[in-house]
Amino acid sequence: MPPADVSILGEFEQVVLLAILRLGDDAYAVSIRDEILDCTGRDVARGSIYITLDRLETKGYLRSRLADPTPERGGRAKRYYALRPKAVEALKESRRALVALWRGLEGVLA
Amino acid sequence: MNQRLPRGVEAMLRWLLPGDLVDPIAGDLLEEFVDVQRRRGPARAVAWVWWQAVRVTATFRVERHTRGRPLPPVGDELRSITHMWDSLGHDVVFALRMLRRQPGFTAVALVALALGIGATTAIFSIVDAVLWRPLPYAQPANVVLVAEQRPREGRLNGPVSPADFLDWRAMNRSFSAIAAASDFSLNLTGDVEPQRLRALAVTTGFFDALGVAPAQGRAFEPEEEQPGHQRVAILSDGLWRGAFGARANVVGTTVLLNAEPYVVVGVLPRGFWWTTLPDVIVPRAFEPAERTLRVVHMFPVVARLRPGVSIAQARDDMDEIGRQLAAKYPKENANHFPRVVPIREVIVGETRQPLLVLFGAVVLVLLIAAANVSTLLLARATARRKEIAIRLTLGAARRRLVAQWLTESIVLGSIGGAMGILLASWIVSAAMQLIPTQFLGLPGLDRIGIDLRVLLAAVAGTVGASLLVGIVPASAASNDRTAAALAESGRSTTAGTTTRRLRAALVVGELALSLMLLVGAALLIVSFRKLVDVPTGFQSQHLVTMRVTLPQASYGQAPRAVSFYDALLARIGAAPGVESAGVVTMMPFGGLDSHSGFLIERRTTEFPFPVRVRPLSVSASYFETLRIPLLRGRYLADRDTEGAPEVVVINESAARRFWPDSNPVGQRISLSFDRPRWIEIVGIVGDVKWRSLDREPEPEAYLSYLQQTIAGPTRAMSVVVRSTLPLAASAQLLRTAVAERDRNLPVGAIRPMDDLVAESIAPARLNLWLLAAFAIVAVTLTAEGLYGVMAYLVTQRSHEIGIRMALGASRRAVLLMMLREAGVMTATGIALGLAGAAALSRFLATLLFGVSATDPMVYAAVALLLGVVALAAVVVPSSRATRVDPLVALRED
After folding, report:
1. pTM for this predicted structure
2. What does the angle CA B61 – CA B63 – CA B68 come to, to the nearest 5 degrees?
3. Does residue B387 have a pLDDT over 50?
4. What is this model's ipTM?
5. Cα–Cα distance between B152 and A58 in angstroms, integer?
6. Contact B481, B398 (CB under 8 A)
7. What is the helix, strand, coil percentage profile of chain B, to 5?
8. Tell me, what's the pLDDT at B2?
9. Residues of B with CB below 8 A from A50's CB?
10. Do B52 and A79 touch (CB under 8 A)?
11. Running DSSP on this structure, what letter comes out for residue B131?
12. Are B685 and B623 in contact (CB under 8 A)?
């Protein structure tokens, strides 16, 4: 049984969370989008990234911090994201569920 | 490189996004904006960043909204915008729910709107293509026709003689190019399927005048206008794709036209358009004798205005040339002058009025449909008074209520509009199948369809109709005083006076508009009946026609053509089932025409005098075959051959016009001018209608085609056959008879004369059907509107009626009361409609034949008809009022 407070993650939510995890300290909207494009080939709309980040933060999966403004961004702050433990749990649970479902299907779908 | 976001983008983000997100998102966008500027250039980067900003903001707001976490408002402006947006969404959902809950109402309203918008869109697409789109020429406004006007004969756009054309070309200072063009037909043979082609012979400047260049190859060179050098041809795109299978190297190949070799020098561009829709264009070479020919008028002349020259200047220039030519050649040129007109005016001329009438009619239908839906909504508005009153009392803003009503009508209008556009595309493709052949030469017909312009017009129509539909009920709903509304709805008595008046006004309007349409349709019906009853002057039943063109190469010598037709007529005439057969150079309703001046012996001093006839060369059997009656003297006979005395038979119109007080039989005329060759008039025959039934017959002169010296070339003839055989058998007989004489000869369409006559009235018939269809739709909608209003009144007033009946009113009195109310509306509507119809009648006048546009009988009949329909529509709901049970009525509420 999964922990009670971990709701099932949507597919795109997983993609975003994994991208943030891969990027470590450098996860902000633009780099997240690039990372998803690099890894999956999906060209995701910017709006979708923002709303997903917004939603995941509201649900308590993410925390964000504003970095110091930089000149190349016209003096604007960057919002960096990082995973909260709840997100890590949810990802683990998703992976477990998926792996369980995949087991035995390698021959069929390989 | 721009290191800042466009100011508007920044402002929009600040305005529409939550404050804590603006900076990070703006920063992200700027980062990428800089990158995109580098890769794609500044202009595209700006477009890109705007598009991204709009998408991000929209996605964000929609997402937050649907997740039940609407964005915190930032400032009052934002609040009102968000609010409006949110309430619009609510209104749309609410409107859809209301529409679904009343499927009957929704269906009726949608059908009305779809019909109105669909018909309007369809007619608009045709009107737009034919009347308003530019012709497919370079600077089409500079392309003009230079025609010949004969004011004394009432002709405006006549064809031009070769010598006049050559003089115009040499003398004018207004045109950068001027060309003569004449249409004829050619036989295409050789290694392709033999076929008859629509051909156009043009002088060199033709393509320059239109500003069109061939898609492949070249236009004609000036020396190709010289006899002996004209064996070159330019193919139409259609012919190239059809007969030549879009062969790549067709330019430079040789084709056989009328059995003579022509070198293909070019192929026309795809959208090329000329009134006669030619398949092939060849140069027009002038024989030396033709260069001084002024009495045969055969060419339409097209020209292009020099840059900077106005049409008025060109007119002055050509008027002066006309005066000089008239002074120099008084005999030939005293009666006619050049006339410069924009090309579209001539082409579209006769079609403009009917098209605009139809467009006007269809807009009336749309107005009626809108008014109809409006009355339906108004009825519902009254039914929802209680709801509105409560909402107003609870503090709902009037603006919100109006917005909600308008949303409902716009939702209704949009669905109706979408259905209407579908309907329109269907109507247009169906209409293309029905288009009479006379209209095929109109510009733009190949481009008619639902394109962007038409869609925009449809959307405009939809929005207009929706607003019309919604504005009345919306304002009515919000104008009622709250307290009054509450009081009224507490005891459901009658609807408020404002609403009732509005509804009556709408129904009166509908009645008036329908009456106007009905009058138009009725006038066309009467006119059409008169037209059909016009005698043609011959018996068109059981006549079959065929056009044969003998090629110059093998039939160049006159006797060969004569003996061909002689033998052909003998062969056909002897076949079982054939009563008689004849030939004629041009037949009635055959689409050809030409005129020639002539001299009357001992009256030549009377020049200038418009003595012109249509010369026709015929076989002696022609009169008998068509059953054209003999009025005086004798018909032409088989003995009128070459060598026998030269004779001519004229028609009644010629006799009346040129010999009003004397007997023309025995007089002599000449069709040649310089050295008159006098031929004796031996008979007068009855008039025959030529192009259409509504035109007066013109003077005609029949010559025996056996007398070749005066009859002129008779290689191209129409064969007319009177037979009792079925059409297929006649056609077979004609084809076999031609093939037996010359198997290489293609035969044109074999058509019953009745069809040709019917085709001549096809435009009138089409006008009639369309206007009648519109009128029927209009009357149906109006009747429905009347019914709805009366039915509603009855329900609304059942309480009052109950009281009246309880107090002793008879059923008859109640019925009369209801009918009186409907009668006042109907009478007002009819009166207004009659006035409107009379005012609009002058637009219809040109389409009418044999009936005045203000014919009192027609107006009276239509008013009566509409009165009866209105009575039928109100009698059912009114009689329902008399069956109100006073007890039940009083117990209600």
Report:
1. 0.65
2. 95
3. yes
4. 0.84
5. 91
6. no
7. 60, 15, 30
8. 67
9. 21, 25, 56, 59-60
10. no
11. I
12. yes
Q: Which two tokens stand for residue B613?
A: 């006839």
Provide the chain A residues 42-101 that lie in CB contact (below 8 A) with chain B: 45-48, 50-51, 54-55, 58, 66, 72-74, 76-79
* C-beta neighbour count of B286 within 10 angstroms: 19
* Per-residue pLDDT reduced to its tens digit, B760-779: 887 778 778 878 888 888 88
- Res. B417: pLDDT tops 90: no
Distance from CA of B25 to the nearest CA of A (A): 8
| pLDDT value of position B440 | 64
Mutation pick from A26, A76, A78, A81 vs chain B, by most beta carbons of B within 10 Å, is A76
Higher pLDDT, B607 or B450: B450
SS (H, E, C) B765-788: HHHHHHHHHHHHHHHHHHHHHHHH
Residues 6+ apart with CB under 8 A from B101: none
Q: Report in angstroms the alpha-carbon separations of A97 from A2, A101, A102, B23, B746.
A: 9, 6, 9, 38, 81
Report which of residues B631 and B437 the model is more confident about.
B631
pLDDT in the model for residue B207: 93
Q: Read off φ and ψ for residue B591, nearest 5 degrees.
A: 90, -5
DSSP B47-105: HHHHHHHHHHHHHHHHHHHHTT-PPPP-HHHHHHHHHHHHHHHHHHHHHHHHHHH-HHH
Give CA–CA dist B852/B526, Å, rounded: 10
- What pLDDT does residue B222 have? 87
Q: Phi and psi for B361 in degrees, rounded to 5?
A: -65, -40
Is pLDDT at B552 greater than 50 in this prediction?
yes
> Could you tell me which residues come within 8 angstroms of residue A27 by beta carbon, excluding any fewer than 6 positions away?
A19, A20, A80, A81, A82
Query: What token pair was written down for B567?
Result: 């033998």
Tell me if residue B168 falls in helix, strand or coil: helix
- β-pair type (B195-202, B630-633): unpaired
How many A-B residue pairs are in contact by the CB < 8 A criterion?
66
Chain B closest CA to A95's CA: distance in Å? 27
